[in-house]
Amino acid sequence: MRAVVIDQPGGPEVLKLRDVPAPVPGPGEVVLATTAAGVNRADLMQRQGLYPPPPGAPPYPGLECSGQIIAVGSGVTDWQSGDQVCALLAGGGYAEQVVVPAGQLLPAPDGLSLRDAAALPEAACTVHSNVVSYARLAPGETLLVHGGASGIGTMAIQLGHALGARVACTAGSADKLARCRELGADLAINYREEDFASAVQAFTGGRGADVILDIIGAAYLPRNVSALATGGRLVVIGLQGGATGELDLGELLRKRATLHASTLRARPPEQKAAIVAGVHAEVWPLISSGLIRPVIQATLPLAEAARAHRMMDAGGHVGKILLTVGPAG
Ligand SMILES: NC(=O)c1ccc[n+]([C@@H]2O[C@H](COP(=O)([O-])OP(=O)(O)OC[C@H]3O[C@@H](n4cnc5c(N)ncnc54)[C@H](OP(=O)(O)O)[C@@H]3O)[C@@H](O)[C@H]2O)c1
User: Fold this and answer.
1) Is 316 near ligand 1, meaning CB less than 6 Å away?
2) What is the pLDDT of residue 327?
3) Could you tell me if residue 150 is inside a domain?
4) Are residues 103 and 139 in the same domain?
5) Which in 70, 108, 183, 258 has the greatest CB count within 10 A?
């Protein structure tokens, strides 16, 4: 089979499509013939040598894909060859075939093409596990989503809205703000022009945001804490603005607020399986009923992975960029 390999860290040009050995399913695993793979910001970091795959993961980039099961390992009883699925991966999505623990499979949702299903697993699992399972976002609460037009943000806005929360978000251009409003954001803040903490305080009548899903980290830490409501939950999942910041613990304790930080990729397969089961139970019905749709900026052939990375690096996209594999793509 062919996969996108990274021989040495570098720019998009280091991504090369090459023949590699086909994967074989171990106990509890299946092999998929890939239809499409989602591109994630983490793949850009992996390409630059800044985010190595966890031990045991395939060396090729790609944290999510869709496809058809072509081989089933021992002990797998819930899935069979021919099933159309999408999957949360620890790596290896940029390939014609990929091996996946069976607990990380989701059925391709009704009403979506198998290709478009590749846009869902990473964002749905990241957002649901943080905003719902951890932060317990409740109807009527306010959710602030940073980077509302990102792959993660477009899912978070839709899920927050579908759960009956009031959703505020940040983005860096008028076009992106308009797209965020279409997805269900009640307040869309241009972070280049306005202080988001003041905007959220004004929007909530001085109460603040109950849950903040943050992808910026250090650069937003003080303002995130000041934007939190009493009892608020700040959930940091990205460090685009640095890892080391100053935290006013006094403000945190006066608000009885919590700070949580997590990353999905390195979690053990049992935890990923539990997260996937939660997504299947609580997000999949919202997709089938059309309340949540994948937002897809572009689909490119696997051979053009470098162009997909340049597109993501340039930052003009809204939602996801997909790589399609084989004739079905
Ligand atoms: N911890 C986890 O488990 C986990 C899992 C998945 C993703 N993530 C993280 O989630 C983030 C999004 O990932 P993705 O794949 O969806 O990437 P993406 O689509 O490329 O999104 C990146 C976004 O960051 C926004 N942004 C940049 N500077 C900003 C700022 N100062 N304020 C607000 N937004 C800003 C950009 O929007 P503008 O153009 O509007 O600036 C862009 O939409 C990444 O940081 C990624 O590492 C974490």
Assistant:
1) no
2) 59
3) yes
4) no
5) 183
